[in-house]
Design brief:
single chain, 2 helices, 4% helix, mainly beta, 6-stranded antiparallel β-sheet
Length: 370
């Protein structure tokens, strides 16, 4: 029994065009209770410092640090933020260029001479913007450095974040004792570049690149800064479930597809010849009367959500002992039929409630139309 509900399917498709976004954040380090700022040299600070005119930092965020987003479908990262403590009255302006690359690397490479290596900066920047901080209004307080963007994320991948900052002139810097140290997450996955005269781009074109040494103003064992990522994703619909049972009298296998949440269910059937039917909107219990092996696949779509993971169910219909047999191996002990008034009947007739009892003592109940 196949039914095609083209109009209903079209309506369902219209409801799925505008899928709601779910927003979230996750942190590397204790964002809500920052306690430790960088207190070493200026070149051991990430993602930047305001003491020199030209800085860069490459930061590795491994998949375990990104555990919050590993199971989120169709996820896109849209902001990265860092927190610092203002200890200066000076106004600071920087031109920032941000690159974010997915990576399988968990450490920086080291060459044969034991020198750590920067990663090549690849692809297009995800953010280019100027930021000005009037520090006099922030003195003694925590402030946030944030960059907005929009990029997809592949589950299981790490992130390599490169942040390049340049002053418009070499004088727009804080003094050594008055500056704005960033809070640290305490994980050594960072390399930095600092210079008062030469920017990171020029350095990448020099014969020194990708070497990172103290003589070049590089920090090679720097802690990750306290970091907050923001993201958005679309939730998946809960997958439907199958309820299959056999019956005698009319020699058939019945299959019910039950939703796990309010949703539209679509199914298709693979028959003995191996061909699949078209995807069809599910509305009523499916029945199979021809002997053979069948495979039914289904998925669900709820309003404002992505479609569920697909599910599949295989079973056989055979004339053994006048009954069909479930692929799971359950054996039918007996079948009883009731009409809509609850009166028992000898066989299925019209709208029938079929109660099947198995040899293991379990039962299943379903409505069928004969």
């Amino acid at each position: 029994m196949k039914r095609f509900y083209i109009i209903l399917a079209a309506i369902a498709a219209m409801t799925m065009t505008a899928q709601a976004q779910t927003w979230g954040t996750f942190n590397v380090g204790d964002w809500d209770n920052p306690t430790t700022t960088y207190n070493g040299s200026y070149f051991d600070m990430a993602p930047t410092n305001f003491y020199v005119a030209h800085t860069a930092a490459q930061m590795i965020y491994t998949p375990d640090m990104l555990a919050e987003i590993q199971d989120k479908p169709n996820l896109r990262l849209n902001q990265i933020s860092f927190k610092f403590h203002c200890e200066t009255f000076e106004d600071i302006t920087r031109s920032f260029v941000i690159f974010i690359q997915e990576t399988d690397a968990t450490e920086f490479a080291v060459n044969e001479e034991g020198i750590k290596q920067f990663f090549p900066v690849e692809g297009e920047p995800i953010s280019i913007e100027d930021k000005t901080y009037e520090m006099v209004y922030l003195y003694g307080e925590d402030a946030t450095l944030s960059f907005r963007f929009n990029m997809p994320y592949t589950p299981g991948k790490g992130l390599l974040v490169t942040i390049i900052a340049d002053a418009y002139d070499d004088d727009n810097c804080t003094s050594g004792s008055d500056y704005a140290p960033f809070y640290t997450a305490g994980i050594g996955k960072v390399m930095t570049y600092t210079n008062n005269w030469t920017g990171f781009y020029e350095y990448t074109q020099s014969e020194d690149f990708p070497n990172a040494t103290a003589s070049l103003g590089c920090g090679t064992n720097v802690s990750l800064p306290l970091t907050q990522f923001s993201y958005m994703y679309q939730e998946k619909t809960g997958a439907p479930v199958f309820n299959g049972y056999t019956t005698d009298g009319i020699h058939a296998y019945f299959l019910e597809i039950q939703e796990s949440e309010p949703s539209y269910i679509y199914y298709r059937v693979q028959y003995n010849d191996g061909a699949f039917t078209d995807w069809t909107l599910y509305d009523d219990i499916l029945s199979f009367t021809q002997d053979g092996k069948y495979r039914v696949e289904a998925y669900a779509v709820a309003d404002d959500k992505l479609e569920s993971d697909p599910i599949a169910y295989e079973f056989y219909v055979s004339p053994t002992t006048g009954l069909s047999e479930m692929a799971s191996g359950k054996t039918v002990a007996g079948v009883r039929y009731f009409n809509a008034m609850g009166q028992e009947m000898q066989e299925a007739n019209g709208l029938t409630i079929v109660v099947t009892t198995y040899t293991d003592g379990t039962t299943s109940t379903a409505k069928v139309m004969k």
